[in-house]
TrEMBL record:
It catalyses: 5-(methylsulfanyl)-alpha-D-ribose 1-phosphate = 5-(methylsulfanyl)-D-ribulose 1-phosphate. It is an enzyme of class 5 (isomerase). Substrate binds at residues 51-53, 89, 199, 250-251. The active site is at 240 (proton donor). It comes from the Bacteria. Its EC number is 5.3.1.23. This is Methylthioribose-1-phosphate isomerase. NCBIfam families: eIF-2B_rel, PRK05720.1, salvage_mtnA. GO terms for molecular function: S-methyl-5-thioribose-1-phosphate isomerase activity. The record marks 160 as: Transition state stabilizer. It comes from Lacipirellula limnantheis. Belongs to the EIF-2B alpha/beta/delta subunits family. MtnA subfamily. The lineage of its organism: Bacteria, Pseudomonadati, Planctomycetota, Planctomycetia, Pirellulales. The keyword Transmembrane does not apply.
């Protein structure tokens, strides 16, 4: 097993800073993006310097630690930082889950002085990060057990990036693939390029190549043909928010892949930690879906590909209904969505 990217890390102790791997620059450049203020992390989340539901949650936890000034934290500053960071992106529930944890630490600590609160916040952010690592490892094991009977060289199709770059650990949707490879199997991953921001092409194909895992990149519109040719034995994706009924929001295009999988008799699996489950939301209809700028569609990566002024609809996520999901893999095991 070769190179595993370090998606994010905290540098130093209290008063330190957050270092992100700048995912907007991949795969051309591997560069870090240091963040020393809450505002810098907000901007990094918004611009997808750090992205992927669990990674956004971990980054937000550390971001709250940046509200500490001169080694002292104030409850007011923490609450303000949480409120502000919650406006960065709306869909991935891990963001709100992590911020709620940080806020609870602050609110429980009203009697504690500034330096002690600063220590407690960093400890909580580190705990969120460590738990994410553990959850990724457990999802990998459960997912690999689920796929263990697939024939050698079986095709697994994935959409967007649900690898190490999307988490604080070793991935969610791709963790079972990494674990299969660790167990000496040779899965073949079909990578949807994932319009419009190409997380599949830029990030998933890069990660798999770095690790020496067999993969083939396809345009999103080619998935049907590849499935019809019998080359896909399972679909594995992550999720940004799973509602109480098992409906799962994930990168735009995932729903289409699930419909195709159903039409071709291919099992469709969602792998996500329980921090992605939102039991306050009864069904996917109530999941807030982020809409992003028209330019991502009309002039992505600096090149105009559509007429100026054309109307654009650019939702970043869609919802796959639970009835299309064969199973949801979490760190606690494998569940039928119902
Ligand atoms: C952690 S993998 C699950 C999702 O977060 C992932 O598939 C996804 O949709 C990420 O979208 P992004 O817009 O790149 O943050």
């Amino acid at each position: 097993m070769s190179h595993v990217p370090v998606t994010l890390r905290w540098e130093g102790e209290v008063g330190g800073h957050l270092v992100l791997l700048d995912q907007t620059r991949l795969p051309r450049e591997v560069v870090e993006f240091p963040c020393r203020t809450v505002e810098e992390v907000w901007d990094a989340i918004k611009r997808l310097v750090v992205r992927g539901a669990p990674a956004i949650g971990v980054a937000a936890g550390y971001a709250v630690c940046l509200s500490v000034k001169n080694g002292r934290a104030s409850v007011h500053d923490v609450v303000e930082a949480c409120r502000y960071l919650a406006t960065s992106r709306p869909t991935a529930v891990n963001l709100f889950w992590a911020l709620a944890r940080m806020r609870r630490v602050a609110e429980a600590a009203t009697a504690v002085d500034g330096p002690a609160l600063a220590e407690a916040l960093l400890a909580e952010a580190r705990a969120i990060h460590e738990e994410d690592r553990q959850m990724c490892a457990a999802m990998g094991r459960h997912g690999a057990d689920l796929l263990a009977d697939l024939p050698e060289g079986a095709g697994i199709l994935t959409h967007c990036n649900a690898g190490a770059l999307a988490t604080g650990g070793d991935g969610c949707g791709l963790a079972p693939v990494f674990e299969l490879a660790r167990r000496g199997k040779r899965p073949h991953v079909w990578v949807d390029e994932t319009r419009p921001l190409l997380q599949g092409a830029r990030l998933t194909a890069w990660e798999l190549t770095q690790r020496g895992i067999d993969c083939t990149l396809i345009c999103d519109s080619m998935a049907a043909t590849v499935m019809r040719a019998g080359k896909v034995q399972a679909v594995m994706v992550g999720a940004d928010r799973i509602a109480a009924n098992g409906d799962a929001a994930n990168k735009i295009g995932t729903y289409g892949v699930a419909v195709l999988a159903e039409a071709h008799g291919v099992p469709f699996y969602v792998t996500a930690p329980t921090s992605t489950v939102d039991l306050t939301i009864p069904s996917g209809d109530a999941i807030p879906i982020e809409e992003r700028s028209a330019e991502e569609v009309t002039e992505g990566f600096g090149r105009r590909t559509a007429p100026v002024g054309v109307r654009v609809f650019n939702p970043a996520f869609d919802v796959t209904p639970y009835r299309l999901i064969r199973a949801i893999v979490t760190e606690r095991g494998v569940f039928e969505p119902k």
